[in-house]
Amino acid sequence: MDAEAKRTVLRMFTYGLYALTVPDKATGHAATVNWVTQASFEPPMLAISVEKNSRSISLMREHGVFAINVYRSDQKGLAGQLGRRYANRPDKFNGVPWNTDVTGAPLLANALGYVECRITGEADAGDSVVFVAEIVGAGVRSNETPLTMAAAGFRHAG
């Protein structure tokens, strides 16, 4: 396989940027993710891929829930902040306003919108785990333009 061609084509895929949030004591936990897709209309489900070395996985398994918050186009800084590894910056979620609803997962006050999910299954996917989850709650906070990886200048290694 031509490794450079593979990287180039994979970087052509369009990706949004989202805040994955999970309950974690009183503080909550968040990470920036980009591999999220709707998986089913009925019941409403989505699939998300999370790196195996992410702190989020153990919290997702412990609580069985998570939320996906859609970043606004002007939230590149927040996406970068929440995208830092917890081991390097455990306080990355401090000062980020949020509330909770159905699942107890943090819902970012300044996101465009969110879906709350209950995990129904998972599958090994190389260096990641793919979770499938039913959407059990949703909310719209604003109708602005969402942030994409391309607009943020972020690049997936491919």
CATH superfamily: Electron Transport, Fmn-binding Protein, Chain A
Q: What fraction strand?
A: 35-45%
Give the fraction of residues assigned to helices. Answer: 10-25%
Total E-strand runs? 9
Give me the CATH architecture, please: Roll
* Count of DSSP-assigned helices: 4
| Basic shape | globular
Radius of gyration: 15 Å
**Main sheet characteristics:** 7 strands, antiparallel
CATH topology-level fold name: Pnp Oxidase, Chain A
Give the helices and strands as they follow along the chain.
HEEEEHEHEEEEH
| Structural class by sheet pairing and helices | alpha+beta
Distance between the termini: 13 Å
Low-confidence sequence ranges: none
| Tally of structural domains | 1
Strand line-up across the major sheet: 2-1-5-8-9-4-3
CATH class: Mainly Beta
In round numbers, the mean pLDDT is 90
List keywords for this structure.
158 residues, alpha+beta, Pnp Oxidase, Chain A, 7-stranded antiparallel sheet, two-stranded antiparallel sheet, 4 helices, 9 strands, 37% strand
